[in-house]
Specification:
The chain has about 220 residues and is an alpha/beta fold. It has two domains: about 180 residues, no CATH class; about 35 residues. Strands 2-3-4-1-5 form a five-stranded mixed beta sheet, sandwiched between helices. α4 crosses α5 and α5 packs parallel to α6. The longest helix has 22 residues.
Length: about 220
C-alpha cells in the first residue's frame, strides 16, 4: 500500500491553492521502486514550475541519510535561495548561536525555518518534499510535522512519503492541515509506472557499462 501526506498550514488552502496533479503524488509502503518514482516525479514537476523549495530523502542503507539530524538544516539551506532577506536572517542566527547546528530538531525548525519564514514572507508556493520518512523519523520529527508546520505561512507545502508505520499513521492521519492518501502499488496503472522506471534504469546501466541493449532480457 502507498500513502500520501500533504502537510500545510490549512488543509483546504492546501487543496485549493496547490495546482499540481495530485494523482501522481504518492508514497510507498512495500516497494521502494515506486516510492522512488513518486519522489523524483514530484520533485521534477515542482522544480519545473519553480516551486520546489527543498527535497530530502531518508535511506536506512546510507549513514548520512538514515538520521533525522540533517533534515531541517538541509531544508533551511535550500530555502535561502528563495529570498535574500531569508538568507541574511539565517546567516545572522548561525553567527550569533553556533550551537544551533547540533540543537534538537524542534529548536532547529523554530530558528532555521519557522522564525525566518514568518518574518520574511515568501510570495510564491514553496514545496518541500520528504521521502521515506519511516526510514529516518522519530517522534520529535513527527510532532513538528503535526504541530509546528501549521504555524508556517500558507505558501508552504510539505509532500511526505512513508510506509504506513503505526507512529506515522497515528501522528499524521487526524490533523486538519494534513491530507492523507493511500495508493495500491499493485494496481495495473502503478505497475506500468514501475516497469517504465525499471526499463529506464536498466537502459542507464547498459549505457554506462557499454553493455548490449538486451543484456537484461525482455522480462
Amino acid at each position: 500500500m502507498v500513502n500520501v501526506w500533504y502537510v500545510g498550514s490549512e488543509r483546504q488552502a492546501l487543496l485549493r491553492q496547490t495546482k499540481l496533479p495530485r494523482d501522481r503524488w504518492l508514497h510507498a509502503d512495500l516497494f521502494r521502486a515506486y516510492r522512488t518514482v513518486s519522489y523524483y516525479s514530484c520533485t521534477h514537476r515542482c522544480e519545473g514550475r519553480g516551486i520546489l523549495a527543498s527535497s530530502f530523502f531518508f535511506d536506512r542503507d546510507i549513514p548520512d541519510r538514515r538520521s533525522f539530524q540533517k533534515l531541517f538544516s538541509t531544508i533551511a539551506r535550500d530555502l535561502v535561495r528563495f529570498d535574500d532577506n531569508f538568507a541574511a536572517h539565517i546567516s545572522l542566527i548561525l553567527e550569533n548561536d553556533r550551537s544551533l547546528a547540533s540543537a534538537c530538531r524542534s529548536r532547529q525548525f523554530d530558528k532555521h525555518i519557522l522564525e525566518p519564514a514568518c518574518r520574511h514572507r515568501i510570495g510564491t508556493p514553496a514545496v518541500i518534499v520528504i521521502d521515506a520518512l519511516d526510514e529516518g523519523c522519530d517522534l520529535e520529527t513527527l510532532e513538528i510535522l503535526r504541530d509546528q508546520v501549521p504555524k508556517l505561512p500558507g505558501t508552504f507545502r510539505f509532500f511526505v512519503t512513508s510506509r504506513p508505520l503505526d507512529d506515522v499513521i497515528t501522528d499524521l492521519s487526524d490533523p486538519g492541515h494534513v491530507y492523507h492518501r493511500e495508493i495500491d502499488i499493485r494496481g495495473e496503472k502503478n505497475q506500468r509506472d514501475i516497469v517504465v522506471y525499471f526499463l529506464d534504469r536498466l537502459h542507464y546501466i547498459s549505457s554506462w557499462r557499454r553493455l548490449d541493449p538486451d543484456w537484461a532480457g525482455i522480462q
